[in-house]
C-alpha cells in the first residue's frame, strides 16, 4: 500500500520506518525503531532526495511509483552516502536509466566505491553554492563535512525555504501517525531519542556541526527535512537551540549522572550512599546507571545532557571493569568535555581502577576532577568512609 505523504505542495515524503531492526548501525539499540526518510519533488524535472536502507526497499518503491504516477525521475540528489540512505542507489540507477546522480566530488567518489564506474557516467557534480533549477524549484548545496561522514552536504530549496538536512536534526524512532514533529509531543516522546541519536552519531563532531549551524543561520528556513525522524515545520528554533547546546558541549539541564560498575554490590552501595547524600543536599535531578545493565549509548547521552558526573568502578583483572572501560572509551571517542567529574575506585588488592578511569578522562578537554585522587574503597565501605564521601557530595553540589 502506498504510504507516501505530501510535505508541502509538490514535495512528497516517500521514506519508510523499520520497527524490526534491533541495533542501528549494528551497535545502538532502537526499541522504537527508526525511519529512513526520502523525498520526491514533482517539479517540471522530478527530483528524488536520497534513498533508504534496503530493509524498507519495498515500501520505498511502492511510495515512489505511486507518487510518480507514470513519470520518471530526472535527478537523484545524494546528500549522504552511508548505506542507511544510499543502499538503493545501485538498484534505482537501473530502474531509471536517464536519471542523473547529483552530489559533490566526494559523494561521487564514495558512490563509485560502493556501486562501481556506472556512477561516474551518471554524475552531476556540484559544489557549495551551485544552483540546480528543476522548474519551479531552485536547489542550492551546503557542504556539511563530518555531519556525519566527510562527504555530507545539505540541499536547500530556495523556492520553498526548505532544508534537506541529511543526518542533522534526525532522531531514532519510527514515525507513528505523522511525518511532522509538531503532531507529536516531541519533548516527551522524541527528545531523549533525538539526543541519544545526536550524541552517539555525530557527538564527536560538535565543531563541524557548529560551522553548519552558522551557515544555516544565514538562510531563511521554513522547514527542516532530515533523513531520520519527523519533519520540522513549526518551532524550528526549539530544535536548532538543542543542536546549538549539544554541538557546543553545553549543559542542557542541571543534574548529576552516576554511572557505576559493581561485581558483588559493594561499589553499588557506595553509589547509593552518594545518591542519597546528593539528594539530601537538594539535588533533584540524579540519574543512576549500572553500566552492566544499561547500554552505553543511553549513559553517554545523559553525560552530554547533564553538567556533572560520578563514575565508580572496581578493579578487574588488574585493570578497569570492562563495562566501565567501554563507557569511558565511548565518552573519549565522542570527545565528551566541559564537565565536572568525581571518581571512586574499589577493589581488594592492587586497586587500579581510579587511576585508569582518570587516564582516559584526562585526555578530554576541560574535565574538572573533584579531589587530587579518586576516592578509594578497600573491599567494603564502612561508616568510617561517610565523611570522605560527604565531601565528594559537597564538592559536586558546589
Ligand atoms: Fe543516517 Fe550517517 O546515516
Please characterize this protein's 3D structure.
- The chain has helices spanning 57-68, 83-86, 89-95, 105-115, 118-121, 186-189, 191-201, 206-217, 236-247, 266-280, 296-305, 322-333, 353-362, 386-397; strands at 5-8, 11-13, 16-18, 23-24, 28-29, 34-36, 39-42, 46-49, 75-77, 100-103, 123-125, 131-133, 138-143, 153-157, 162-164, 223-225, 256-260, 286-290, 308-316, 319-320, 339-347, 367-369, 375-378.
- The chain is of the alpha/beta class and 398 residues long.
- The chain has a seven-stranded mixed β-sheet with strand order 1-2-7-8-9-10-11.
- Helix 7 (191-201) packs across helix 11 (296-305) and helix 11 crosses helix 12.
- It binds MU-OXO-diiron.
- The site of MU-OXO-diiron (FEO) has 8 residues, from helix 2.
Brief account:
With about 400 residues, the chain is an alpha/beta fold. The chain has 14 helices and 23 strands.
Described by strand count, sense and barrel closure, the largest sheet is: 7 strands, mixed
Mean pLDDT: 97
What percent of the residues sit in helical stretches (DSSP H or I)?
A: 25-40%
Judged by helices, strands and strand pairing, the structural class is: alpha/beta
Radius of gyration: 24 Å
Q: Within the largest sheet, what's the order of strands?
A: 1-2-7-8-9-10-11
Distance between the termini: 58 Å
Strand percentage, roughly?
Answer: 15-25%
Shape: elongated
| Molecules bound to protein | MU-OXO-diiron
Uncertain stretches of 5 or more adjacent residues: none
Total strands: the figure is 23
Number of alpha- plus pi-helical segments: 14
